[in-house]
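Board notes (copied after class):
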Amino acid sequence: MAARIIDGEKIAAQIKEGLRKDVEELAGKGKCPHIAGVMVGENPGVRVYVRSQERACEELGIKYTLDQHPDTMTEEALAGRIQELNGDPEITGIILLMPVPAGINARRIQAQINPDKDVEGMNPQNLGRLIYGTPLLGPCTAVGAVELLKTTGVPIEGAEAVVVGHSEIVGKPIAVLLLGLNATTHICHIFTKDLAYHTKNADILFIAAGKSGAVWQRYWKEKRKYNENPEGEPPALPDLSPLIKADMLKPGVVIIDVAINRIPEALDESGDPVLSEKGRPQMKTTGDVDFEGAKEIASWITPVPGGVGPMTVAMLLKNAVEAAKMAVG
């Protein structure tokens, strides 16, 4: 039997509909949620992300202000600006837009965001609350991914749960949340010797490695250098296959694929992305799982796109509402 699809778009829409009433109630108390997105320098990719955040906030009546600064801004000046936003009663949420220029330690800056305004849940105090099982504003992607698991109704307590990926913003927080739900939790990463051994034993599988996307980025960086100076052998063609194959899965497993990889549809004979009729590289968005093969084995599975991505946005909006509620007191 084919797996049932976990529809992140639908679940996120339900969450946002519930938040709409909260925003209206807050507005009645004179406290509209207001996020400041702090951006240092100029980055087209970040601009796209900002527009996405703005649209999502506008949909619910949440204010969003882009607080932009030149790439010459120092870490000291940025820290000062964060303190100004911390003290601004009109601002209820703060986001440090990534990446920041070289010379600025993003972790140090995130640590200076008021935990009660940290709508991305990345301040060490908020991560510490997660460890203690008393989260206020949790990491959006991690919390959203676990919420998707809960919607399946699959028993979590005592289940063998495997998390592939151990980043501070996704893998580790997911593992902590699963432990809080009393799952028997294992964490795998690039140094795991036999990944398939662990994934084959998983009742619940979270994947957040971004393998093929990382492989593509490394290859393309080398390829561009070679194109500019074609000496020696060109880089070997990359293996862009999914990290998790169907034969690495336990029948009936629940799969939450957190990864978002942007990779070419295909490569031409020279190793460059095949171009569209408009002369643009033909790219696709994939996860870390062989979706077509996995859906014939799993009981539940998230698609990519349309799974965890929409939930990340929904959790950001939820954090924005919760932060505004804390500001009201």
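Comment from the instructor: The domain at 140-309 is CATH 3.40.50.720 (Rossmann fold). The chain has eleven helices and eleven strands.
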